[in-house]
Description:
Blueprint: H1 2-32, E1 48-54, H2 61-69, E2 78-84, H3 91-99, E3 105-109, H4 122-133, E4 138-141, H5 152-163, E5 167-169, E6 172-174, H6 180-201, E7 213-216, H7 217-222, H8 236-247, E8 252-254, E9 262-264, H9 270-282, H10 290-311, H11 313-316, H12 318-345, H13 355-375, E10 379-381, E11 384-386
Parallel strand pairs: 1-2, 1-4, 2-3, 5-8, 6-9
Antiparallel strand pairs: 4-7, 5-7, 10-11
Helix pairs in contact: 1-6, 1-10, 1-12, 6-12, 9-13, 10-12, 10-13, 12-13
Amino acid sequence: MNTLAIILAVAGCSLAAGYLLLCLWLIRGWRALPVWEAPEGYVPRTPVTVLVPARNEAVAIRQCLDSLLRQDYPSHLLEIIVIDDHSDDDTAAIVEDMAKTLPHLRLLRLAEHLLPGETQSYKKKAIETGVACARGELIVATDADCVAPAGWLAAIVSLFETRRPQCILGPVGYFPEVSFLERFQSLDLAGLMLCTGAMTHRGLPLLANGANMAYAKSAFEAVGGYSGADRLASGDDLMLAHKIAAQFPGRVLFLKNAGATVRTAAQSDWHSFWQQRIRWATKTNHYRRPGMTATLAAIFLFCIFIAATTAGTLVLGWKALCIGLSLFLIKSAADYLLLREACRFFQQEDLLRGFLRSEAMHIAYMIGAGVLGNVVQRYEWKGRRVR
């Protein structure tokens, strides 16, 4: 019994040490990434096309487009294309009505560009259709349920014109939170943004969010769009970022600017939350870098180890409980340092209230999403059952 406890303690400490070092490495990478601001007196020159794939977004689409139309960006350089993905609500009608008085707003109907049964990757096909019709040199993508701040495009394009990257990854956040579930998602997303920025700055752009992403049209065409990555319904963001990074090393940047954060709504109920996270988890099986897959597997194993040793109290007694609680506290300390860094930057420090409750939820979520993401082959997304 003592031997087993020693083995568990050594294995657990090894995983904990690796996790702590990873968090410290990410924090250092985030701090090394400079904040980007548009230069004083900046005047943009780049024609931009904003792509907005939309399916059944009648409730949100007008607010989204209003935020795009309020951008501090010259209208003669701006084109907005909404690609309607077979909506059965008033999404297309709302866009058509707005486009009557806005010449730089266009509506494309995916049904007119897609053969029956051609794909289950509807969003990727919508983006490819939009890129093919775009007149802009720079493609900026967001989602139909998002709202962008007025300086969003200026921040993106100033970085593009100054540094000439092929792809820019931007920050995403949720609207003000009410419930514990929404606060948990906001805290989790803040941490993901830090991880995205830190890894991108270190030359490893492995994470991305399609709600705030830009790329040169020529880069999209050079990598063949989503060819070879169109079997999954989701993954339009990170799979494209991976392809561009592979063909253009060092040319993917993260826009570290809190004022350029695109906002969207968190999942309001547990069923929607788990459907979203299963969708996210299915993408991890398609990472092109073995190191990233191994890191995620180690984190998953660490979370299982914490839960298993704590539950092992029934067999090993207080020794297992001590091991489990010690590992939980080490993970909590590492996560707190990382999340405090992210929350300070995005001015969301209030999310750290009740941190330990969110930490316990994070362990359960990592285990559940990891298992379900590899077991569940189909999930709900935008009213469809896809895989």
